[in-house]
Design brief:
Strand content of chain B: 15-25%
Oligomer: heterodimer
Largest interface: A-B, 41 and 43 residues
Strand content of chain A: 15-25%
Shape of chain A: flat
Strand order of the largest sheet of chain A: 3-4-5-2-1-6
CATH architecture of the largest domain in chain A: 3-Layer(aba) Sandwich
Radius of gyration of chain B: 25 Å
Number of strands of chain A: 13
Number of helices of chain A: 16
Distance between the termini of chain B: 54 Å
Number of helices of chain B: 20
Number of strands of chain B: 22
CATH class of the largest domain in chain A: Alpha Beta
């Protein structure tokens, strides 16, 4: 990580929310004694700023005024990251903010901050420890009560203690192996095998347990995605808007309007989910549309919760083949305000019947509305009649409770949220399998022990000491610029 | 002559090794001062050299031009390979020695060395001024530029047999005085260490028919590289295996209050890995069957060493307990067992050349540094001796890294940790066990030996060895064979396709050594046996070592990172206790910091996060 070696550079970034226009944005500088260099940019003397006081002045360069700003100076070492920090509050127009940042980058030795670089300096200057940064990362990015809790538990060391338990079990197993080399005369072969296999099983069960907490979750659980997918014009955007209550997606009656995807965060029971409105899926020769469709397929398949939207008046046997490959959680039939709705729905349901319950849940032909149960229980059809506000609300609530039920069920396995931990546990699990097979096949204890060392190395990584470069890299990649 | 370049005080295994290597620098004048009445390199405890981890050290010392391997071979009466079935990397050679011949041989060898003066007097006073060290006995004083203290057996020693307490480190000889009586200002640890030795038995009173015989193994390779690999110098004899039983352990348990180890008479800390029979009896009340190895102490002496029943119980109890053992029921004790407690140096004052950081020119090696074992002592003696010599000559020091040698592991462990029990080498102490093997000691040590620019026989041998090694390596990686090959046919080996010899010997169903030996023999190719063995094992392990290396590469990189201990100590994020330890050890890189005992995970994390 290059930024490791360069903590004396002065860096700049926009530290406040940075994707839309707002009243105020905060531009932050961090470095060592950079104030003199900034003197030419402000209408007041930046070398004599009173610490922690707000100063009002103009931001100008070459006689051109760029903005009027308020700035606050936090001298090191008692600042957030131990360095001198200057926070400049500017008007929050994106163009203006970008122009100001570029002004400094182009006309001084100041450079743009790497993701997470402000906090990295805090770590470097002993303002935060690695654990705190990791927990802080989760806390700052927490979008659900669960990840908030896990962030706190990381800070308080609970998760860590379960990793330490793993480490202890590893050490016990490791020492049982060492008994076989250095102390065989003392304990004898029999006692050695006894120690070895009991500690092996203990370690195995701990690793298996941890693996359970990370396996089966290929999606992001910190902010799980809920994907709406289906044929063009099935009513995805309409439902998207219904779920979000206000109109955000562009809706028209020409098929293929939502060319890429639109996402919006929404809350169910205090947990944040991202709702994805994907491009309508269909065979197409339009290359732009096709790339949108490919993207939609990938997005959908990687989503936590997949809702297939069907217009029962526009769904044929050939469409079944296309959609059955998606492991979707829920079907929503739209256009219930059209005449002949019930008959059309039954027809589509009968199309799904041959696929069988394994793929799509049990849609039994004999049952009229409600449809289901699918993977997560029954669901009423959604009435997309805009005039019937109550029935829409009820349908949406139903969808939300289905999503929430799946989420809570997953959480009951106590899943591990931090990506780095999950990656490492996956790797640990496969390294342990390799180790187990060496134990079975190889009689050379030196080789077995060398393989166990590799397992141990992975465990040390999990508890956060071994490859700090990678650990830091991962952590700081997940920080947004300027934090 | 009273002025020397280097004086070594102490004629045990450390001192002898230090004197031997230092005197190979022919223009230096060396003196070895040893206690009168005791032979050089005597073996007061078990009569054996080598063992798990220790065999590797002996071969390292030997490849570096040291003495211990040569002496062990020439006076070895029983050869054995330990961990024979556990894999090549952890196989270790152990040789039972004739104690009397061993020490006579050591005296003769050292007496022949022209630039080495051997003085047998008890040292009373050591002092330093102006960079010169003065060593005085009752009647004489000698001066030197460098001083190596190997005064380990036994500093301020006190022996216990039952309630009988006497001053001294071993039977029939004087103890060294307390170091502070000799040399003011040298810091010893607050805790004393203790060790013990079993009773010696009269061989003629043992019923060997009732014991398991362990004959000398004539397939075991000698230690010294200039000896024939299977050469034997004296008559070979057997060791025997006996077992303790419930009666044995009951006697010990019944007399707990008479054991100085357990009734508070001894305060010293013993090694957990070298327990007395009392330890075994009290700590493992359910276990009554323990191994007792009956080891002859020599060809001409009738005493045997019953390994495994070290005790400090009163003499009467010792007799009773020995006689409960099958085969020993009529045995007579020639010399009773005892425990001894002694002072040890605080080795965190030393640097990686075993020199006192605050007193340049003063080196410490051997048991005084809190180690146990002749091999550990010899390894340190070599390091202290060679570095004292290099330092007189103003040349670069020799530092062996822990990644390439057990000596390096030991020295670094010693200087980076306050010991709380006697230190012994185990293979487990090395992170690089697949690589630090007995068979490749020459490969590992040769570059260091070459740096000394000495011209002994061993240097010529090593040069040829390395050339042959490269040549054979080339052969096994460039010669291909397939199923039509005459050798393959004769041995009925199945090969999947046309493969290199290197791949052939890696096949899991073949023994790499015998396969390579047979192959070379079949085609009439003649290579040094040691080269063949080492190449076969190296080839077998190659894949695993690479795998392990790549897994540890990041770790190694991290370990090598230089840290500033003073900066860490001034940090607010680190616990007071950790700071104290760090301040004491002054680690120079992250690896050393990591290996300090009692350093918390949190500290490591903070250091990694903050300073690297």
């Amino acid at each position: 990580m290059e930024l490791l070696s360069n903590t004396s550079d002065t860096i700049i970034a926009c530290s406040s929310g940075n994707n839309s226009n707002s009243a105020i944005s905060i531009i932050r500088f961090s470095g060592l004694n950079f104030c003199p260099e900034l003197n030419t940019f402000f209408s007041i003397d930046t070398t004599t700023l009173k610490p922690r006081y707000a100063h009002y002045c103009n931001l100008s360069f070459n006689n051109k005024i760029y903005d009027d700003v308020i700035m606050t100076f936090f001298p090191g070492p008692n600042s957030y990251n131990g360095q001198d920090i200057l926070e400049v509050s500017v008007h929050g127009n994106r163009l203006s903010v970008d122009r100001i940042i570029r002004l400094f980058v182009d006309n001084s030795s100041i450079r743009l901050a790497e993701p997470g670089e402000f906090s990295f300096r805090a770590l470097k200057n002993k303002k935060l420890t690695l654990n705190q940064v990791e927990g802080l990362d989760l806390l700052l990015n927490a979008s659900s009560i669960f990840s908030l809790d896990q962030g706190f538990s990381l800070l308080s060391g609970k998760l860590k203690s379960s990793f330490l338990k793993l480490n202890e079990s590893y050490l016990r197993h490791r020492s049982s192996l060492e008994l076989g080399f250095d102390f065989l005369d003392d304990i004898g072969e029999e006692q050695f095998s006894e120690h070895f296999s009991s500690s092996f099983n203990d370690l195995k069960s701990i690793i298996t347990q941890l693996y359970k907490q990370v396996s089966g979750i290929s999606t992001n659980l910190i902010k799980p995605e809920v994907a709406l997918f289906g044929l063009p014009n099935a009513g995805k955007s309409t439902l998207f808007n219904k779920i979000l209550v206000d109109d955000r997606a562009i809706v028209s009656s020409t098929p293929g309007t939502t060319r890429d995807y639109i996402s919006e965060d929404f809350l169910i029971d205090n947990n944040t989910f991202t709702l994805l409105d994907t491009a309508g899926l269909r065979e197409t020769s339009d290359s732009i549309e096709k790339s949108g469709i490919d993207r939609a397929i990938t997005l959908t398949k990687n989503s936590f919760y997949k809702i297939l939207i069907i217009n029962p008046f526009d769904f044929t046997a050939k469409d079944i083949d296309f959609f059955k490959s998606f492991q979707f959680d829920l079907i929503v039939f739209t256009h219930s305000d059209f005449e002949g709705y019930d008959a059309s729905v039954s027809k589509v349901k009968s199309l799904f019947a041959p696929i069988g319950p394994k793929k799509v849940g049990s849609i039994e032909p004999g049952i009229s509305a409600p449809i289901g149960p699918l993977q997560n229980g029954p669901i009423e059809p959604i009435y997309c009649n805009l005039t019937d506000h109550n029935s829409t609300l009820e349908g949406v609530n139903n969808i939300c409770s289905q999503v929430s039920a799946k989420y809570l069920k997953l959480l009951s396995f106590d899943p591990i949220l931090i990506e780095r931990h999950r990656d490492t546990i996956h790797r640990l699990h496969s390294l342990f399998e390799i180790y187990s097979s060496e134990v079975e096949l190889n009689s050379d204890l030196a080789i077995i022990s060398s393989e166990l060392n590799i397992v141990g190395h992975c465990i040390s990584e999990l508890i956060g000491i071994i490859s700090p470069d990678d650990v830091l890299h991962n952590i700081f990649d997940n920080f947004c610029i300027g934090k | 002559m009273t002025n020397f370049d280097i004086i070594i005080v102490g004629g045990g295994h450390a001192g002898v090794e230090a004197a031997y290597i230092a005197s190979q620098f022919k223009n230096l004048n060396i003196a070895l001062i040893s206690m009168p009445g005791v032979g050089l390199a005597s073996a007061p405890c078990n009569p054996a050299v080598g063992g798990v981890g220790k065999g590797q050290v002996v071969r390292e010392i030997d490849a570096l031009g040291g003495l211990i391997g040569k002496l062990a071979d020439r006076n070895g009466i029983q050869f054995r390979t330990l961990n024979d079935s556990k894999g090549f990397a952890v196989q270790s050679t152990r040789i039972q020695i004739d104690k009397d011949l061993y020490t006579i041989d050591a005296e003769e060898l050292l007496n022949k060395i022209e630039n080495l003066t051997i003085i047998k007097e008890k040292i009373k006073k050591i002092s330093t001024s102006g960079g010169t060290y003065s060593v005085s006995s009752k009647s004489s004083t000698w001066n030197s530029k460098k001083l190596v203290l190997t005064i380990g057996t036994f500093l301020n020693g006190k022996m216990h047999t039952g309630s009988k307490v006497s001053l001294g480190g071993r039977v029939d000889c004087e103890s060294s005085d307390s170091i502070n009586d000799m040399f003011e200002g040298i810091k010893t640890l607050n805790t004393r260490f203790k060790t013990g030795t079993p009773a010696r038995l009269d061989s003629k009173t043992i019923d060997y028919d009732l014991l398991e015989e362990q004959p000398s193994d004539d397939t075991v390779d000698t230690f010294h590289v200039l000896h024939g690999t299977k050469e034997r110098f004296v008559k070979q004899v057997s060791c025997y295996l006996a077992y303790t039983n419930l009666d044995t352990m009951q006697i010990i348990r019944d007399n707990r209050e008479k054991s100085p180890l357990f009734n508070g008479q001894i305060e010293g800390v013993g090694a957990r890995y070298c327990p007395s029979i009392e330890d075994k009896a009290y700590r493992y009340p359910d276990k009554n069957k323990h191994h007792v190895f009956i080891e002859p102490e020599g060809l001409s002496t009738n005493t045997v060493y019953p390994s495994g029943i070290s005790t400090s119980l009163p003499e009467k109890n010792q007799e009773e307990l020995v006689q409960t053992i099958v085969g020993l029921s009529n045995s007579k004790i020639v010399q009773h067992g005892y425990a001894v407690e002694y002072d040890v140096l605080d080795t965190t004052q030393l640097d990686l050349t075993l020199q006192m950081r605050d007193m340049p020119g003063l080196y410490f090696a051997g048991q005084v540094n809190g180690t146990s074992g002749y091999e550990e002592a010899a390894g340190q003696g070599y390091i202290a001796g060679v570095n004292a010599a290099l330092s007189v000559l103003s040349r670069k020091p020799m530092i062996l890294s822990r990644n390439e040698s057990y000596i390096g592991v030991m020295v670094e462990d010693l200087v980076s940790n306050v010991r709380d029990e006697p230190y012994r080498l185990f293979t487990a102490r090395s992170e690089n066990r697949l690589f630090i093997r007995e068979d490749n000691a020459i490969n590992r040590m040769c570059p260091h030996r070459t740096n000394l620019e000495l011209e002994e026989d061993i240097d010529r041998y090593s040069e040829i060895y390395m050339q042959e090694y490269q040549a054979l390596l080339e052969v096994i990686n460039s010669v291909y064979i397939d199923s039509r090959d005459e050798f393959i046919k004769k041995e009925s080996i199945s090969v999947p396709r046309r493969i290199k010899i290197a791949e052939l010997i890696k096949q899991s169903n073949l023994n790499p050594i015998t396969t390579l030996v047979d192959f070379l023999e079949f085609y009439g190719l003649n290579y040094d046996r040691r080269v063949v063995r080492s190449i076969a094992i190296a080839t077998k392990y190659e894949g695993y070592i690479n795998k392990s290396d790549s897994s540890f590469e990041r770790m190694k990189k991290l370990e090598e990172k230089v840290i500033s201990w003073s900066e860490i100590v001034s940090s607010e994020n680190i616990s007071f206790e950790c700071k104290q330890r760090i301040e004491k050890i002054r680690p120079e890189n992250f690896g050393q910091l990591k290996r300090i005992d009692g350093i918390r995970q949190a500290t490591l994390t903070a250091v990694v996060g903050s300073y690297l």
